[in-house]
């Protein structure tokens, strides 16, 4: 704890020095840094209770025995929320922000009031989110749920970070950031932090930003008072019921047949060596495809676009034989009489949780290497089409033509002898069919690269529409086949 406090003190000192050094910078640069950083900090205060899952020491239920009026208790707990290490750090940084805006020409009262509104917004937002967590997420809290929240944040943070790192300032703020700051300045996340800068610039939107910031504080205060009243009249779930037996993914998934199948599939995908090897091979195989192109003399910036679509293709192809990996455990699905769509959708959840973050991180990096962000919609459309079309065809192939694989517990590199060409047909059909169905998105992306960049938008929406349509049709067909061939699938599972 001492080491953590020292690191926090050092980071706070560095952040204060960085803020105060902006006094001599241009006003638009200071506004960009302040609004982006302030919006991120405000969002972090709201997400921290969802991710951390810590017990709230200021939970209103703890003070119910004091018999205080609900309004008085809500005000006291809100005031106590300002007494914490994160709030103290935020207050110091807010003071530095107010000093910077005063140095930029804004009246000191405008800079101080904007900083105060920013701190109050963060504290009240944390209180509200903590209360919502205690009401709705406490009984389902687990490492898996926290991991999902962190994964969702990475899907957003990494692409944004790559995009910001690729911008060239050349002494002025890039136009992309100017538009982003203008939008954030009139949102509850950034209005308070933008107020002082807009006053310093003499911008007419300063009044709107002030109105939004004050309204945000007022709405958060009302929400906190309402949540305190609700919490005091709601019984907390017992700890023993909430933490029974370490249910893992089953505690996170919905209590439906599809949710149970998705939870069981997630356990397999993250623990079974056969699944893990298949996932780890995908990045390696995708990168290897770039080597022959480099040797053949293809420009490196073009080669940078190739591995990501290949990874999307392989990710969509992964569950084409998922039924076979269940082995005799398939009897649970057949004997319980689950609907086909529950089985099909539940099996796709692990691939989506793996594929979406992987592609969300890989696509911006590929565009960064290519050097032209206008092509981002085209590459995203191609990857979406390949990924979703592959999942749709795999939903059909896994019940129409399953083939024998290594049994649970065996080496993933040990494959059984197979009679006939069922495995080659299933693999080839899904792979080739995915490429054929994604041909329109691939064609529009090629036009965007070679001729008209406007075709990138067509590639995005065309690829998304094609992928969603094929996925829905694939799930529907696979569901019908699963219900009709349940007995034969059981025979296959028992005999392989």
Automatic annotation (TrEMBL):
Record-given protein name: ABC transporter permease
Keyword Nucleotide-binding: no
Regions crossing the membrane: 30-52, 73-102, 108-133, 145-165, 177-200, 207-227, 247-263, 275-296, 302-318, 348-370, 376-400, 421-446, 458-482
Top-level taxon: Bacteria
Keywords: Membrane, Transmembrane, Transmembrane helix
């Amino acid at each position: 704890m001492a080491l953590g406090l020292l690191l926090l003190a050092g980071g706070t000192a560095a952040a204060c020095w960085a803020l105060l050094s902006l006094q001599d910078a241009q006003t638009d640069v200071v506004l960009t840094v302040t609004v982006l950083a302030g919006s991120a900090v405000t969002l972090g205060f709201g997400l921290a209770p969802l991710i951390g899952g810590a017990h709230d020491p200021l939970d209103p239920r703890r003070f119910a025995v004091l018999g205080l009026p609900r309004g008085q208790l809500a005000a006291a707990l809100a005031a106590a929320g300002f007494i914490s290490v994160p709030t103290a750090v935020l207050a110091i940084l807010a003071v530095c922000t107010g000093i910077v805006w005063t140095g930029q020409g804004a009246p000191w009262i405008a800079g101080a009031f904007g900083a105060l509104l920013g701190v109050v917004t963060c504290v009240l937002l944390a209180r509200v989110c903590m209360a919502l967590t205690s009401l709705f997420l406490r009984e389902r809290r687990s490492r898996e749920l926290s991991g999902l929240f962190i994964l969702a944040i990475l899907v957003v943070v990494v692409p944004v970070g790559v995009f910001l790192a690729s911008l060239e300032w050349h002494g002025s703020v890039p136009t992309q950031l100017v538009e982003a700051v203008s939008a954030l300045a009139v949102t509850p996340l950034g209005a308070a932090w933008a107020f002082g800068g807009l006053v310093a610039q003499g911008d007419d939107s300063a009044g709107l930003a002030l109105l939004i910031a004050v309204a945000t504080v007022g709405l958060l205060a009302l929400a906190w008072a309402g949540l305190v009243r609700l919490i005091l009249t709601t019984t907390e779930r017992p700890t023993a019921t909430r933490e029974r037996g370490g249910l893992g993914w089953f505690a996170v998934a919905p209590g439906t047949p599809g949710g149970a199948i998705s939870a069981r599939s997630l356990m397999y995908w993250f623990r079974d060596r056969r699944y893990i090897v298949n996932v780890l091979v995908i990045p390696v195989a995708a990168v290897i495809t770039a080597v022959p192109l480099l040797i053949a003399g293809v420009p490196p910036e073009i080669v940078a676009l190739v591995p990501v679509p290949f990874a999307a293709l392989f990710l969509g192809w992964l569950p084409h034989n998922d039924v076979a990996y269940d082995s005799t455990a398939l009897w649970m699905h057949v004997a319980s009489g689950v609907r086909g769509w529950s089985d099909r959708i539940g099996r796709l959840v692990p691939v989506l949780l793996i594929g979406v973050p992987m592609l969300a991180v890989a696509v911006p990096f590929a565009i960064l290497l290519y050097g032209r962000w206008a092509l981002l919609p085209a590459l995203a459309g191609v990857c979406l089409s390949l990924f979703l079309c592959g999942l749709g065809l795999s939903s059909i192939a896994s019940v129409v033509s399953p083939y024998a694989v290594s049994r649970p517990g065996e080496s993933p590199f040990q494959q059984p002898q197979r009679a006939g060409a069922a495995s080659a047909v299933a693999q080839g059909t899904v792979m080739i069919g995915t490429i054929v169905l994604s041909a329109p998105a691939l064609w529009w992306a090629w036009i965007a690269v070679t001729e008209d960049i406007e075709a990138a938008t067509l590639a995005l929406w065309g690829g998304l529409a094609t992928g969603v349509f094929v996925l829905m049709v694939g799930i529907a067909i696979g569901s019908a086949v699963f219900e009709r061939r349940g007995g034969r699938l059981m025979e296959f599972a028992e005999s392989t």
